Amino acid sequence: MHSNDEFQYDPKTDTVRVSRRDLARLLLQFRTELENNASEDDQWRHMHDYDVSFERLADAVNSGSRPGTEPDERLRCKRTPAYKWPDLPPYQNGNGTGADPARITGGYGTHYVVMFRQTGRALCGLNFTREEHRKSTGTPDCAVCVREMDLMAAIPRPEETPAT
To answer: Helices (H), strands (E): how many in the chain?
Structure first.
């Protein structure tokens, strides 16, 4: 039997520790396999279910980057047929328009949000009612919402990708 220390498992926090390099290699291989085996009937859905976990892993890898370096976008969803992006603003236009900064009452902080009739949704997935919504300015404090806006700016839409 192996000790927990050997596998870098911390039972107090239920976390495991792996090297940034190993995690990045696994994420790159996952994205490669996904794109090589994609079909129109079985697309990977960005910011849905498992993808939220993969995006968090990519966040962890990118957080260890040297200051001043760009995040490694190869670890993220791309605008290729392998991926299905949400069909809502700001994703549908691909440039981040349609999501505005807002404070969500109840201690939920500031987010980039899209308002519908009576409810709203933050890019991180937080749902709220119109009564909980307060307009805000500046960059939100939700790192996931900021990452999603940055991702839309960094990853070209198919019609913007140069032909090879």
So the answer is: 3, 9
Could you tell me the end-to-end alpha-carbon distance of the chain, in angstroms, rounded to an integer? 53
**C-beta neighbour count of 62 within 10 angstroms:** 18
For residue range 85-144, what is the model confidence (pLDDT) as tens digits?
Answer: 887 777 776 666 678 888 998 889 999 998 888 888 898 989 999 899 898 988 999 999
Tokens of 30: 């996952």
pTM value surpassing 0.90: no
Residues in the chain: 164
119 beta partners: 129
d(CA 48, CA 28): 19
Retrieve residue 98's tokens. Answer: 């349609």
Residues 6+ apart with CB under 8 A from 91: 46, 85, 152
Q: Is 144 left (phi over 0), alpha (psi -120 to 50) or beta?
A: alpha
pLDDT tens figures, 5-17: 667 888 899 988 8
